[in-house]
Write a structure and sequence with these properties.
Length: about 190
């Protein structure tokens, strides 16, 4: 979790806890609406309300910017062709990259994440390899193959190919039927 989101989470936790405490105080009769109104009419009370409003506005602006960034990342990859625009959806490009990973690189367990990077594309591959695989060689092969093939076949410039080896697992063995065990009992 990023430091900003951690701060937002802590802030929202404090606001929620404070609301709970105030609700309990109102219910118990310790705090009244009249006394709360008198407090918020003071300079300190108004300062607290302004600060709280400013923080809530900042948090909401952050979430609006996250939404906008998410929508931008989902946008189509566009090129200008001789007779108009050529657009490629992220879904189609993800399927294309997945086909290259399976058919040309020879890896079956992976995830593909795409994002716009300047006027090109950033590809992030998260994969699982086998113990006998050479991580550096396979990572470099993935980077070279994807950066070359995506540009050749789609025209979309590849600015970055990142590879994350998430785990290294042994071959999954096929389940086999349990062997029949012969039980011998001695009857004397």
């Amino acid at each position: 979790m990023s430091p900003f989101l951690l701060g937002v989470t802590v802030f929202l936790g404090i606001v929620t806890a404070g609301t709970g405490v105030i609700s309990i105080l109102f219910s118990a009769g310790t705090l009244s609406l009249v006394s709360a109104q008198q407090f918020f009419e003071t300079l300190i009370g108004r300062a607290i309300l302004y600060a709280l409003g400013g923080v809530l506005l900042a948090v909401s602006m952050h979430f609006v910017s996250l939404f906008h960034r998410g929508r931008t990342q989902l946008a189509r990859f566009t090129q200008d062709g001789e007779w108009g625009k050529i657009e490629l959806s992220p879904h189609a490009l993800r399927e294309f990259v997945s086909g290259i990973m399976r058919d040309e690189v020879g890896i079956d367990r992976f995830q593909v994440r795409l994002r716009h990077l300047g006027d090109g594309l950033s590809i992030r591959i998260t994969t699982t390899l086998l113990p006998e695989d050479r991580v550096a060689e396979i990572g470099q092969r993935i980077q070279e193959t994807l950066s070359r093939r995506v540009v050749e076949r789609t025209g979309v410039e590849v600015r970055e190919v990142s590879v994350l080896v998430n785990s290294i697992r042994a071959h999954e063995e096929e389940p086999h039927a349990p062997e029949e065990e012969n039980e011998h009992t001695d009857a004397s």
